Amino acid sequence: MSAVAQSLETLEAEFAPDRKPKPATVVTAATDARQFVIFHIQGERFAVSLSEVQEIIRVPGIVQVPFSPPSLEGLANLRGNVLPVINLRKAFGFPLILHDDATRVVVLDHGRPIGLIVDRMANVVTVDAERIESADSIRATIDSDFLTGMIKDADGRSMVMILDTEQIVRREFKDIFNREAGAVGDRTIAAQGERARQLEVPADEDQLVSFEVAGQEYAFPIERVQEIVQLPETVTGIPNVAGHVLGVITLRNRLLPLVSLRGLFSLPAIALTEANKVVVVSLGPGATQSVGVVMDSVKEVLRVSRSLVEPMPDLLNGGGTLSDITAICRLQDGRRLVSVLSAEKMFNRVDLEKLAQADEDGMAELQSGASAPATSDSGDEEQFVVFRLMGEEYGVPIDAVQEIVRVPAELTRIPNTPDFIEGVINLRGVVLPVIDQRRRFRLDAAERTDRQRIMVLTVRGVQTGFIVDFVSEVRRIPAAAIGPAPNLSDEQARIVRRVANLETEKRMILLLDVLQLLNVGEIEAASRSSLAH
Predict the structure, then answer these.
(1) Whether the predicted model's global pTM rises above the 0.85 cut
(2) E strand or H helix at 165, and its extent?
(3) What distances in angstroms separate CA 91 from CA 70, 83, 85, 168, 319, one per listed residue?
(4) Are 50 and 166 in contact (CB under 8 A)?
(5) What is the extent of the structural domain holding 135?
(6) C-alpha atoms less than 13 angstroms from C-alpha of 78 in its C-beta half-sphere
(7) Residue 406 forms part of a structural domain
(8) How far apart are CA 297 and CA 231, in angstroms?
């Protein structure tokens, strides 16, 4: 008995414990017989050849992909591989139902794995050739192009439809496996080069990453910020260090000292929640040591004129908390003040050395813990700004993001523009077209919230803002975790070129090609909207 047949026999017993499969239904195939996996959808029985079936799994966590065909449920992680999952109810035009304990994904081997969601499993059968009838002679309740034949039951009164899975994939997902990884890599390298040329920061501007602590706004220069990550559930405490040092955490197989900015500035302590973020900063140009700073929340990535940044007055720069602040950024005609922090000045090197020299056995245990995500041996990484839309995670290269700003209360709407262009705003004297990224990706609309942000990108020379649900983090992703996205449609393949499959974190991040976020016509429309204001 094959492993698939064996697992299906177990499933049969699980679904109907009082009813064991008949021994005659699962046997070794004879030379004139074929073996099939049988499952149910909408009260009908369907079959696929056992030779196509790689395995059968419960419904995994699934990531929805914009611009994909309607029958695609999404992408899942199958032991490090990206698994496209088709909902056969959608493909067949049947009413949709909620997945339950009986729902399964039949994973087929089509050169690369592809999953089919079915209502429940039945069994594995061996069928003599005379019991298989051509599909042409019977009209089914679904498109007969999906069928290769029918299996007649022994009583002759009921039938099982044999699916042509290759035809389903071919019709639903044209060219799904035709993209070559090498071609993707070449285009990606070219795109990164073009982005680098387009996104040079003017010499009279600074970029800052701003955060909030105890109602006050602080910022680090963007060149000091390596990434922004979620606060982990576990922090390993270290004895005999300053009170503001929370301990150490493991970040992709390296130890990171963790410091509370509230503790460092003697501000009232609060309970840490998922809203807190860890800002990973380097201690200076070329420094190898990094520190994680716990902030209350992330605010924005700011691009500001240096004329708005003033050095800290000498009178206030004599010591204490204020000595950690190197400059004050005046925004909104002075109504908004942002304190620019110095990573070099604010951390006590002695405390950090104590963390680095802590008990080696404890550190080794921490580094080898199960919670530490795996990394590439090569050390090659890419850095992305990660944001969310409808609960799904997307990433854009950090060098493509010029700044991140709040969504203003009102935008100026421009008539005769595509519906996804929300309007325009005045961003420091520049008229910026703003696109609702949900509508651009044909997702459900959402009410405006305080968490939404405008990510300012340059798409083929046009500076454009994209409204996203919220920006979650800035992080480095090992190159080994990044692979080409399945080709599900022409538009999806153009925009979502790659996928970051973070298996140990049970996360999948869709990586966008910024240069392809708008086509030529849409870029012209965005440009006209800014000129019309």
Answers:
(1) no
(2) helix 165-172
(3) 8, 17, 11, 8, 68
(4) no
(5) 3-172
(6) 22
(7) yes
(8) 11
